[in-house]
Every structure is written in C-alpha cells, then in structure tokens.
Amino acid sequence: MIFVTAGHKEFDRLIKKMDSISKDIDKEVIMQIGYKPSYFPENGEYYHFIQRNEIDEYFKKAELIVSHCSVGVLLRAQKHLKPIIMVPRQYVLREHVDDHQVGFAKMLMEQDSIQGIRFVFDIDELSNAVVQALQEKKAVALKSFGQRDNLVNTLKDFVSNLRK
Q1: What is the DSSP letter of 159?
Q2: What is the pLDDT of residues 27-84, one digit of tens each?
Q3: Which region among 18-32, 100-114, 145-159 has the lowest average model confidence (pLDDT)?
Q4: Are residues 88 and 68 in contact, defined by beta-carbon separation less than 8 angstroms?
Q5: Which of the residues 46, 59, 127, 135 could staple to 80 if both were Cys, CB 3.0 to 4.6 A apart?
Q6: Which of 55-64, 84-93, 135-144 has the lowest mean pLDDT?
Q7: 75 φ, ψ to 5°?
Q8: Residues in CB range of 98: below 8 A, 6 or more apart
Q9: Domains in the chain: ranges and CATH
C-alpha cells in the first residue's frame, strides 16, 4: 500500500498525479487530501483528514509514503522505517504562502547523513520516483546517531532563518 498525505491544506497537484499513477500500478493507494480540495481521487480510498493515532496505522502498513514536504511527515516516516517521496508545495503555483517547503527540500538534499528520501519538484517525475522507491525499498534513515544532532541543528537554523 502507498499512503499519500497532503496535510491539512489541499495539494491538488500531488493528489491528482497520484490518482493518475494509481491506475497504472498494482498497489492500493490511500490518500489524505486536506480540508478543501478542488480535486477528489477517482481511483482509490481517500480522506480529508486522519487523526494522529490513525495516521500511524497507515504509516505502519504502507510500503511507501508520498507527501508534501513536512518535517512531521519526515520524522514519522523515519520512525516507521518507510521510504518517502516528498513533493514540496510551490509558491509560484499558489500552493503555499512562500517557498519554505522548497527551501526545506533543498536543505535536506544537501545532508549526506540522510537516506531513503526522494524529492520531486516536477510533478511529471513522480511516476518514475514511485516506481524506483518501490523497487529500492530504502527506508528513511540517518547514517549515524551523531549525524541526527547535525540534522536537528540544521533544521533549527533553517527555521530561524525563515523568521528573519
């Protein structure tokens, strides 16, 4: 099963593409689509919102997580040792108030200590990323405990720079 989460805010670009992809793969796709989407999946189960305790059950069962670029989702994928594809919301596409998700994704891409994350900026590349992630089955992991502290400090710096 592939679990797709848009968070609280709708992310129609991601949900529409995953709905299309779900027709062509032999996996169940369950989507959490946000509160006020304009697109509703036609090829799978979906929910507007899933409670925190329930979302852990979906993460446990999933072979792959596909998500907006969220710290919380990343940490939950790591907790459950799941591979993840992160699709940052983009300001230019009016998906968010700024490009902090793009910046977060680029910052994570520079970290040598993280594995098991794929980033998709061009939605047309999502299908290939899904196929590759399912084949590799490489879970989100930090290469060493010492590196985790570096990641946390990097995240803190990133967030504090957003506030400036």
Answers
A1: H
A2: 999 999 999 999 999 998 999 999 888 999 999 999 999 999 888 898 888 889 999 9
A3: 145-159
A4: yes
A5: 59
A6: 135-144
A7: -65, -35
A8: 91
A9: 2-163 (3.40.50.2000)
Pairing of strands 84-87, 64-68: parallel
To the nearest 10°, report the CA torsion of 88, 38, 52, 153.
Answer: 20
User: b vs e for 47-86, b when ≥16 Cβ sit within 10 Å of the residue's Cβ?
Assistant: eeebeeeebeebbeebebbbbbbbeebbebbbebebbbbb
Length in residues, the chain: 164
pTM for the full predicted model: 0.84
The token pair at 16 is 């529409």
Q: Which residue has the tokens 């989507």?
A: 31
In order of 10, 23, 24, 127, 151, the CA distances from 16 in angstroms are 11, 12, 14, 12, 32
Q: DSSP for 42-82, please give it.
A: SSSEEES---HHHHHHHHHH-SEEEEES-HHHHHHHHHTT-
Q: Sign of torsion, CA 126 132 137 142?
A: negative
